[in-house]
Amino acid sequence: MTWGPWWLADTGLPLPLGGNVVRRDLGPAVMDQVARDLKASIEYSLAHRPSALAHARQFNRGISDERMDTFVGMYINQWTVDYGDRGRQAVRLLLDRGHQAGVIPHRVDVQFIG
Q1: Residue whose C-alpha is closest to residue 42's, from 61, 18, 15
Q2: Distances in Å between the alpha carbon of 1 and those of 6, 7, 9, 13, 21?
Q3: Does residue 85 carry a pLDDT above 90?
């Protein structure tokens, strides 16, 4: 089964593939700085794709440059910079379903920053 098409057909939302997490007890200033730094790093890599791919090549396990470019593009794109409202809704729904299924023991109250 391919999960992305199933999730889209079932929910009408993009499949959340990952996210960055910051401990709330670090406080708003640190949380905001981490969010800014991560966003700047992602935006920089998107703006400098050839050099970012050259760096990633050392971790690509021998796949071709073309396939690596496709793979990276699936996971690092504008959704990575900002989930947007649909992406936030998808994250909340995924976590809620995980809790309802018993996979996540407690309901997760997501706070998006940045």
Answers
A1: 18
A2: 8, 11, 13, 17, 28
A3: yes
Q: Tokens 């391919």, residue? A: 2
Output the six-digit token pair for 32: 């905001």
pLDDT digits (tens, 9 = 90+) for 14-60: 999 888 899 999 999 999 999 999 999 999 999 999 999 999 888 88
The pTM (predicted TM-score) of the whole model is 0.81
Q: How far is CA 99 from CA 10, 48, 76, 92, 104, in A?
A: 18, 39, 27, 11, 4
Residue 34, CB half-sphere, CA atoms under 13 Å: how many?
A: 14
CA 53, 55, 60, 64 dihedral sign is positive
